[in-house]
Amino acid sequence: MANTRRAAAVGGRIVSGVVGLALAGAAVFAAGTVQLPDLGREAPRTSITPEGASQLRACAGPLLQLASTDTALAAVQSIGAANTTLSGRDAAQEPLASPDNTSGDASGLPLRLTAPTDDSSDAAALLAGAQSQFADQENVFGAAAADCAEPSANSWVVAGSTEVGRTSLLVLTNPTAQDAVVDLEFSGENGPIQAPGSQGIIVQTGQQKVFSLAAFAPNVVMPVVHVTTRGGQVSAVIQQSVVRGLTPTGVDWAGATVAPRTEVTIPGFVVPGDIPASANDDAYDDQAPVIRVFVPGEDDADVALNFIGEGDDQNAPAPLSVTVPHQSAGEINLASLDPGNYTIVLTSTQPLVAAGRSTAVAGDKSDFTWSPASDALGAAASFAVPAGQNPVLHLSNPGSTALDATLDGGGENRSLTVMPGTAVTVPLTENSGYTLTGAVGAFGRVVYSGDRGIAGFSIAPTNPAADTVTVYVR
Amino acid sequence: MSPRVTAIIVVHDGTGPTASPRAHDPADDQRHLRRTLDALAAQTRRPDNVIVVACATPEAELELVRRAVPDRIVTSNDRLSFGQAVAAGLRVAEPPTSDDDFLWLLAQDTAPEPEALARLVGSLEVSPSVAVAAPKNVDWPDGSTLVSFGQSMTPFGTTVELVENELDQGQHDTASDVLGAAPAGLLVRHRVWDEVGGFDPGLPTTDDGLDFSTRVRLAGHRVALVPDAVILTAGDGVAGPNRSTRAHARRRRARAARTAQLHRRLVYAPTAVVWLHWLSLVPLAVLRAVWRLLSKTPEFVGGELAAAFVTAFGGTKVLAGRKRLKNGKTVGWSSVQPLRLPFAEVRRRRRLSREAGQVVYTVERSELRFFSGGAAWVVLASALAGVIAFFNLLPATALQGGGLLPLSEQVPQLWQHIGYGWRDIGLGFVGAADPFSAVLAVLGSITFWEPSYALVLLWLLAFPLATLGAWFAATRLTERSGYRIFAAIVWTLAPTFLSSLADGRPAAVLVHLLLPWLFYVGAVVARSWASAGTASLLLAATVAAAPSLAPAMAVLWVLALILSRKAIVRVVWTIIPTAALFAPLVWQQGIVGGTWLRLLADPGVPILGPQPTGWQLALGFPAGDEGGWLAFGESLGLPAEVLHVLVPVLLAPLALLALAALFLRGSVRAAVLLFVGLLGLATAVGASHLMLTFVGSFNTSVWAGPALSLYWIGLVGAAVVGLDSLRRAGRAPAVVSALLLAAVAVPLVAAGALGTSVVQRTDGRTLPAYVAAAAAQEPRAGTLILTPQPDGGLAAQLVRGAGETLDRQSTIVSTDPVVEDDDLRLATLAGNLVSQSGYDLQAGLAENGIRFILVAPPATNRGESATTRSEELRVRAISALDGNAQLAHVGETGRGMLWRNDGEATTGPAPETAPLWSNIVLIGTGVVFLIALLLSIPTAASRRATESTPRTVGRRDRIRPERRRRRAKKPAVDATEVGVTAAGTQHPEPIEVAAEDLPDDRTVADAPDEDRTAEREEHPRG
Question: Which segments show compositional bias classed as Basic residues (chain B) (predicted)?
Fold first, then answer.
């Protein structure tokens, strides 16, 4: 009796044990392999569009050249006056001081442009300005154009050269109401450059300071400047002029390019049909059409270049891919491209900054222009077209939907249709202001070309510092 | 003249006013009534008149009565009390003609012996001063036990039975004069009955005889006992209270006794002080309710309160009683003074009854062997290990990092943050607080000089407390010290516990410390109210710290309900404090908000947690990363693939032990524990997929740590059960699995030294020192914290004062997926602050009471570095704020870039209060917890009760004769495995008595429960 009871108990234990073992195994297996869906909602967020603030722009002022006097080693003097055009309702301009300019206000001064925002509307006022100048002097020749940019606390200027025969001037204009404490960081083709005196430069409110780049970064073929400010904000422009032998071969203003990011678009890049021949047999020829790139991070970047052509001939060049080492500036040579206007989209694995440079024959000399990258336009943008030869708007649409835009200004109202992946060229009237509506996601650049040289500037979207921001409330 | 005896028999239908309806067996009534009538017919001296008062008697009994041919039958449709029935019967009786007219009071279950009436009449005849003759009341059916033989009062008026449940061996036969007697079988002079006014209608079942006899004494007569007259009573509840031992009848008896005592107190009190007694009724009832809770007899609380209210508000007709007393009283109270029992005598009787040994020990409860079993050394060793592991936290006064924040500075502030009311987080709102805030309030009050220090102590003492708790929990499963220590070590080295300590999760650490204690008391909830009270408190604390455990605990509770039979009220009580604590939150989130899932969110600071895979959860690692081995192995050079295989292999012996327990003896306990573990694993897997909490732009899952603690307790428990069945053979596997677990736990234990722990010392401020200094002047100064998110967005948060505290956090806010109006206001302000905008920032800042703006370092996603978009936004925010003329740039602090608002900043929206609801919630929760606390405080009586229960749970401790014979051959027998009775005699069928005794007012012991033997396999959870 006891034995059968014990046997039954043991048998029951074995059965229950096996069942339990199977259940445990199944449970652990299920825990490991079954993919349960995540239950939960997205973090609560809201898009806040900041109310429109009154607008501020800074125009850099006339072309300058170095002129050292007994009292000021860093002095410059202006060469002629710039033509400035404004565009915007209730736009006003006032001159700023430029103490480094020994010519004083003889040839004009940098300008501050303002436009108040209408209280009844949330959108910011449309304000734009641009300046252009043609110089034909002993050591400066060419056409230069620049738009009057918004001041910024953090900007990258990819331009200039401090080789023999190349003069680069860094022009910092402070149109804001506070003094700006500026820190400059220089990098070149050999990596970051230590430049004493580049930190803590004070640009007082309403003033302009001009520096020769060679004072900070001498003998650098491909300098890249990073301008950061505390307190007020500055608009940074590099004015570069080139003299080959005894002949001046070009001058241009290069504004700030967009902040480092993984997708950079350079609209309206001109590959001229007539590139002047190389003067010497140096391996480096800065007359070739190039894109100067710089990766500020810690890792090398793999960059793919895609091209968008213009006009009826839609045969865009084949994409290129290059590897760019980190922290040293490099230039991608595009001499192999067919002549034309291209929009170049650089897609990179690491954030980078880029600007393009092209040189074209102008009469019996040559001129170059810098094409920094720009941001995509919003629903409404405005730009001004100062005096110059053959101003043309290059509008490109790298996106995937067609754009129906309206270009209003210069006495006419045109509607443009830009198919996805293409660009259009629109002739403009000089000395006028334009408004472009409906070109969301498009990139634009105004280019002057002729026998007096080539010049151009990009169209900036309104108020990037007032973009809609997503605010998470938890 | 020869005396005339009128016998009045009161017959009910057997279910008298105090009997429980379920006790009614009609055959019983017939038996009782038939025997009574037969005994009456067999008297040597027959009564001259027999009047039967039938109160709502069924036809069958009436037939019986008619066949006995009484002189009169009085029927009534109401169930009259004994006194009222006798009075009704007397209405049809002839009035007394002489002093020798006697009344004999009988009931349906009082069967007098044949000589009884003769002896009673004889004693009354012989002594004219005696007005009431009381017979000996003995037990039905054989009359061997004395039920009642005289009653008396203490000097304060409490009833005392002179004889308590003794065998009738003639030891009280010399008693003569008493103060009072039980009403069954009394022989009363009819004239005296009329003179005194009969029984008091306000005393239906209890103390009616005593009160009548007292009034007879006060009228100048005597009450005498007649030992030769014997009456058998069955205790049907007609004459005297129902003597059933069922719980329902006991409660009724207690309530009736207390009502009777209060009624007599009010009736006997001198007129000058009766109002004082009346005022004291309800307060005394509350005090006695508290005393009932303390003495672990909560079932009598209702009776106490009901008795007080009924007596105070006229239910027992005190005024009529006072008038009756006054009318009949001729001598003073001092004449009955000698008959009262002095207090010393009462105390002596109580001591004797306690020592009479009602509890028969069938199981020897073994000693705890805490010190002799080596557990003290293990606890000391783990304390040392804890100090070494958290060496850098020793001088800390507050902790920060992970989910740790300081607590409020003052203890009253801590207690303001519980319940329902103003929640001071963000812009503030009126709502329910997390139950975890109540746990934190208790913790912080322990170190009242510095509430945040409680969390430091929690970290430093975590190891020894875990060891201690696990050792005690293991005492429920095994008697062997070695295996108890094994359980303690394995519990302390649990990967989930060490992960929670390294990641700074105070709620999960608390759960891991509380779970073993919950198991320790929860396993024996059914045994006593003390364990039910303690278990309810621990369960409330555990579920408050980890609401994700609520579904698993609910399943276990339902299981306990189903399996508990007698103790169902105790099991129901375990859940009540938890329900009371969670009620406001359940109301707000569940019933009003309709989002029941959000109740499961983790309380405390919302932090971004890891996403463990199912395999990692099955191994017991809530933070993934194989318990820190992947990172540790990288630094040592071990490839990840090797670790993925090695770590499960190292943990396998423990799992194998747990599963092997299913095949050994005690597999039922192992199966239950493994079921608990399965629940824990399922909860962990479910919790890791519930992305309920929002942190900036991320949503994060519920921390699986507490659920894995439940899983671990199931595993370890099953392993200990298996080892216990293996006995000596289990020593090697135990040592091996403990050592391998220690090897697996190395990276987590050394997390402090390796730098992978996020817990750090802090000075109690979570905002920059500049803000804290300003907050000293302006306590409500708000700081707007802007954190750039990886996708280029911005997270905006408002913090008031010197920083965020742990007890102010609210899951209502952290799980809310909707952008509320307050949130939108703050978001608009934040969005415009970081941009160039024309928004009137000054008005926005002043309206919300913002004094500082802090741009924090960009948020990153689980180990990655800051993205460029977040860096861009940070630059944009800094430049926009710099450009604002009204904000003064304070500078870079350890927590980000700080700006000060120099304009007018008001204190923001004023705190609203909902005083009515918050008071109701606070008082209600407080009362429930006070009851639980009173129930859980150990008393001498409850300690004695636990002595009679085995320490372990679920083991068969039955005494089997054949086993004992076998064991007698081996001299070295483990005495704890064989139960012995207290007297050492070998009882084939031992009787175990109910653990609680009734502390009745009457100091009468109830008959022992005869329905349970020691052979029962208690369910481990009830």
Answer: 961-970
Residue A316 has pLDDT above 80, yes or no: no
Domains in chain A: boundaries = 54-472
Distance CA A151, CA A58 (A): 7
**Closest residue, chain A, to B879 (C-alpha):** A153
| B700 to chain A: closest CA residue | A40
pLDDT at A75 over 80: no
| Contact (CB<8Å) B868/A260 | yes
Distance between A231 CA and the closest CA of chain B, angstroms: 5
Q: What is the pLDDT of residues B269-309, one digit of tens each?
A: 999 999 999 999 999 999 999 999 888 888 899 999 999 99
Range A371-380 average pLDDT: 89
Note whether A121 contacts B: Cβ–Cβ < 8 A. Answer: no
Which of these, B903, B854, B860, B906, lies nearest to B881 by C-alpha position?
Answer: B854
Question: Which ipTM did the prediction report?
Answer: 0.78
**Of B696, B817, B838, which has the smallest distance from its Cβ to A117's Cβ?**
B838
Share of chain B above pLDDT 70, in %: 91
H, E, C per residue of B605-645: CCCCCCCCCHHHHHHCCCCCHHHHHHHHHHHHCCCHHHHHH
Give the least confident one: A13-22, A226-235, A368-377, B942-951. B942-951
Cα separation, A290 vs A464, whole angstroms = 27
* B696 closest CB neighbour out of A17, A28, A43: A43
Q: Name which of A246, A110, A251 is nearest A168 in CA terms.
A: A251
Inter-chain touch A153–B836, beta carbons under 8 Å: no
More confident residue, A165 or B947: A165
The closest of A337, A358, A266 to A303, measured between CA atoms, is A266
pLDDT at A68: 63
Residue of B924, B132, B63, B909 whose CA lies nearest to B576 = B924
Residue among B597, B694, B889 whose CB faces A474 most closely? B694
The verdict on a CB contact (< 8 Å) between A48 and B827 is yes
Residues 6+ apart with CB under 8 A from B480: B723, B724, B727
Interface touch B796/A472, C-beta < 8 Å: yes
Top pLDDT among B169 and A185 is at: A185
Q: What is the pTM of this model?
A: 0.81
> Is residue A1 within 8 Å of B559, Cβ to Cβ?
no
Instruction: List the Cα angle B312/B317/B320 in 5-degree steps.
Output: 130
Cβ separation of A13 and B827 shorter than 8 Å?
no
Of A49, A231, A473, the CB nearest to B819: A473
Please check the confidence at residue B494 and state whether its pLDDT lies above 90. Answer: yes
| Cβ proximity of A372 and A445 under 8 Å | no
**Interchain CB distance below 8 Å, A471 and B795:** yes
Residues 52-81 of A with CB under 8 A from B: 52-54
CB-count exposure of residue B740 (10 Å: 0-12, 13-18, 19+): middle
- Give the pLDDT confidence of B845-878 residue by residue, as tens digits: 988 889 999 999 999 887 788 887 888 899 889 8
In this prediction, residue A73 carries a pLDDT of: 57
Work out whether the CA dihedral B753, B759, B764, B769 comes out positive or negative: positive
B477-486: average pLDDT: 92
CA–CA dist A158, A262 (Å, integer) = 16
Our measurement of the distance from residue B184's CA atom to the centroid of its chain's CA atoms, rounded to an integer in Å, reads: 41
Given CATH 3.90.550.10, say whether it is the number of domain B4-240: yes
Q: Percent of chain A scored above 90 by pLDDT? A: 41
- Mean pLDDT value across residues A35-60: 87
Structure tokens at B94: 């002839």
Q: Where in chain B is the domain with CATH 3.90.550.10?
A: 4-240
Backbone angles phi, psi at A83, to 5 degrees: -95, 125
pLDDT recorded at residue B495: 94
